[in-house]
Amino acid sequence: YTEAWDADKKSIHVMPDTPDILLAKANAANVSNKLYVQAWEEAKKKGYDMRADAIPIKTAKASRDIASDYKYKETHEKEKGHYIGCPSAKEDPKLAWAARAMALQNDRLYKKAYNDSKTQIHIPVDSLSVQAAKECQTLVSDIDYRQYLHQWTCLPDQNDVIHARQAYDLQSDNVYKSDLEWLRGIGWLTEGSVDVVKAKKAQELLNDRLYRTRPEQLKFTSITDSPDVVLAKTNAMQLSDV
Questions:
Q1: How much is the pTM?
Q2: Closest CA to 123 of 111, 114, 132, 115
Q3: Does residue 200 belong to any structural domain of this protein?
Q4: Which of 73, 76, 130, 241 has the fewest CB within 10 Å, making it most exposed?
């Protein structure tokens, strides 16, 4: 069944100049690493010729001499021990400048004046800043802020205190429920409760015996000469086999 399809799959040929094939070849050339470095590889195969007096060589040598630690310190090593014109080290400008820089950088000398004057501060006791600090300390102090219960700050017979006590008694749960203590332990029947009465009323509304009266309980006497009775008798006589 699939023999013809398998043979047909092998006989499909795509023309090499179709747009898709040309686009795929162009993409392959763009992403090819071999073609990307081909020019560099060919340039490496040709070699190079750089003379000793070429500008890049001279630049590299000059940079190396500048960066060399030996060349950097060569002048300093030659000038060691050749200071002349100063009878002592204190009169040498360079040494004096170095000593001054060291003194500025010394943390102990930098803070010496501050440490000497730190204990020589005198502030009047009634200055504005001291009074403000005392008031702030009084405000943030927990001792002055907190008043214990036994330390009364007002008379117990003041109107606001009496009013507060009455408000506390009204809000108290014990006082609120004190009038219901006499009900504790008393039995209660559910005969007259709202839920029981409601259930009874619903039962009466749904009771079929009270809602509907049976026919045998009705006192009814049929009239013998009514049209429907006469018609029923005539039909019975017509249908009677006897």
A1: 0.19
A2: 132
A3: no
A4: 241
